[in-house]
Amino acid sequence: MARSNTRYVCQACGASHTKWSGKCDACGEWNTLVEEAVPESAPKGLGRTAGAGRRIDFVDLKGVSERAPRQISGIAEYDRVCGGGMVPGSALLVGGDPGIGKSTLLLQVVCSLARTLRCAYISGEEAVDQVRMRASRLGTAESAVALAAATNVRDIVASLDAADAPGLCVIDSIQTMYVDTLDSAPGTVAQVRASAQELIRVAKRRGIILVLVGHVTKEGTIAGPRVLEHMVDTVLYFEGERGHQFRILRAVKNRFGPTDEIGVFEMTDAGLTEVSNPSELFLAERRGDVSGACVFAGLEGTRPVLVEIQALVAPSPLGTPRRAVVGWDNGRLAMVLAVLEARCGVAIGANDVYLNVAGGLRISEPAADLAVAAALVSSLTGEPVPADTVVFGEIGLSGEVRAVSQTDVRLKEAAKLGFEKSLMPTQRSRKTSGRGDSGIQRIELAHLEDLIPMFQETRSASSGRGRE
Ligand code: TYD
Ligand code: MG
User: Ion ligand 2 — residues with CB under 5 Å?
Assistant: First the structure.
C-alpha cells in the first residue's frame, strides 16, 4: 500500500495525525492541525535499520563525574532562578509574551557573563544594528559578545561545532529558526522541534550553554510547547503585567536546581534592574488603614515575599454577580467565599467581588486563603485590617485554618519590614499565642470563624475614633 507522505501535526501539543480533523484527538484543541510533509528520514522501524544495535557499556552508579563549574552571570536574580548559575552543556528555554523583555534580559546576561566566558548572541528577529543600539542603550556596548543575525540552523550548527566555539549561545528566538531539510514554515511545531533538536545536540557535544528564547502563543504556552519543554534542561518564564514595571522570572522546570524560585526585575529606560528585596517594592504604594486590603506574608521559592491583597465587595446590579480576579486563582476565591458563607455566616453571595494582588505578582500558594478572607471581610464590613498586621494560612472546606510551611521565614521578613502582628494558623508546637524569635505578636486562629469578631471588635473599639 502506498504510504501517504503528509501528516497533520497539532500546533498546540505536537501530536501527529494521518488525517485532518477539526479537533486534535490528543489535546482536544480546535483548528490546530497543520499539514506537514513527512521528513525523508522518518524512522523506519528497528528491523530495517543497519542490523543489530551496538551493546551499551553500563557503569556503576557509584563513581566520580567531573563537574564543570556553574557559570555565574553576576546578575544575582537570574543566577538564583537558574539554580545558582548556568550549567555548561545545558539547554535553557526562556519563554514569555512578545515584548515582555526577554531579549533585553538575555542581552544583559550575556554582556555581564562575557567578562568571564566567550558568549555569542544570535538574533533571528533583529538586525545586528538593532541589537547594537539596544546594547548601547543598556550601557553594555563595550562587552566582548559575538553577535550575528542568522536563522538557518545548518549555518549556526556549523559555527558552533568548531574548536573555537563560544561557551554560551543565545538563540533569539527559536520560532524564527529553520532547518532547510523540512518544508514547513519557521515557527511550526516541526521546525521548532527539529531546530531545537539540532541546536541542543551540538550544544551538548561541545559543552555549550544554549539559551533558547521562545515566544508564548496567545493560548499561553510556548509555541510547539510540550515538545520543547521536555527537550531542554531548564524552562524559565519571564512574565509581568504590561502596565507594571515589574518583571518576574520564574523557573518552571530545572534539572539542575529548584523550580519554585523567582527573580524580580524592574524595567527602566536603561534596561532591567534587579530587585533584591521585592517585598519593599510590592508594598511601596500601600496606604495604611484602608478597608479591603491586607498584607499577605507569602513565599516564592526560598524567599519570603510580602504583597498586598486587595478586595472590593460591592452590591451587584446584575443577576449573576461578577467575580474578577487578578493574580490569584478564580476557583480558590470561590472556595473562600463559599466557606465564609456556609461556615461563618458571612453572606457575600449577592455582591460583586473584585480581588487583586497588588504589583502584578501572581500567587499560587494556598497560604493566601486567610489573607483573601481577611480582605473580603474587611471590605464587606468597611473595617480595615490593622496596617501593622500580616496574614497567612490555608483554609480547609470545614473552615479550619491550616498550618503552612516556613512560618518563621515569613515572620522574620514581616518583622524586617516593620510589621508587628501576624494573623496565622495555630502552631502545633507552640499552642499559646505570643512573640517568637521574630518579635512579632502571633494571633493564632483555629477556625475562620475566629476572624469575623476581629472586625466587629475593631468596629466597636474604633467607633468615635477617626480613621487615619
Ligand atoms: P524586548 O526585550 O525586545 O522584549 P521581547 O524580546 O520579550 O519581545 O523588550 C520590549 C521593549 O521594551 C523594547 O522596546 C525595549 C523595552 N524595554 C525597556 O525599555 N526597558 C526594559 O527594562 C525592558 C525589559 C524593555
Ligand atoms: Mg525579542
Answer: 103
96 annotated ligand-binding residue: yes
Question: What phi, psi does 89 have (nearest 5°)?
Answer: 85, 0
- Between the CA of 407 and the centroid of ligand 1 the distance, in Å, is 37
Q: Tell me the HSE value of 3 on the side-chain side, using a 13 A CA sphere.
A: 9
Ligand 2 centroid to residue 103 C-alpha, Å: 4
Q: What ligand has the least distance to the C-alpha of 105?
A: 1
- The CA 370 to ligand 2 mean position distance, Å, reads 39
Which ligand 1 atom lies nearest to the CA of residue 107?
2
The third-level CATH classification (topology) of the domain covering 76-276 is Rossmann fold (3.40.50)
Residue 273: Cβ within 10 Å count: 14
Q: What is the CATH number of domain 281-467?
A: 3.30.230.10
Question: Residue 46 and residue 64: Cα distance in Å, rounded?
Answer: 34
Ligand 1, residues 94, 104, 130, 212: which to mutate, most atoms within 8 A of Cβ? 104
DSSP 389-409: EEE--EE-TTSBEEP-S-HHH
Any atom of ligand 1 within 6 Å of the Cβ of 139 = no
**In angstroms, rounded to a whole number, what is the distance separating the alpha carbons of residues 189 and 285?**
43
pLDDT tens per residue, the chain (468 residues)? 555 678 888 887 778 888 999 998 888 888 888 888 776 655 555 555 556 888 988 988 888 877 768 999 999 999 999 999 999 999 999 988 888 999 999 999 999 999 999 999 999 999 999 999 999 999 988 889 999 999 999 999 999 998 888 999 999 989 999 999 888 888 888 888 899 999 999 999 999 999 999 988 665 555 555 678 889 999 998 988 777 788 889 888 999 888 878 888 999 988 999 988 888 877 877 777 789 999 999 988 778 889 999 999 999 888 899 999 998 999 999 999 999 999 999 988 889 999 999 877 888 899 999 999 999 999 999 999 998 999 999 999 999 999 999 899 899 889 988 899 999 999 876 544 455 667 889 999 999 999 998 887 544 444 443 333
Measured distance CA(248)–CA(246) in Å, rounded: 7
Tell the residue nearest (CA) to atom 11 of ligand 1: 99
Integer Cα distance of 182 and 442 in angstroms: 63
Please state whether the predicted TM-score (pTM) of the whole model is above 0.85.
no
97 annotated ligand-binding residue: yes
What is the domain partition of the chain in residue ranges?
Answer: 3-40, 76-276, 281-467
Residue 156 amino acid letter: I
88 is in an annotated binding site: no
Residue identifier of the C-alpha nearest atom 6 of ligand 1:
103
Q: Quick one: DSSP state of residue 416?
A: H
Q: Is residue 103 in contact with ligand 1, taking CB distance under 6 Å?
A: yes
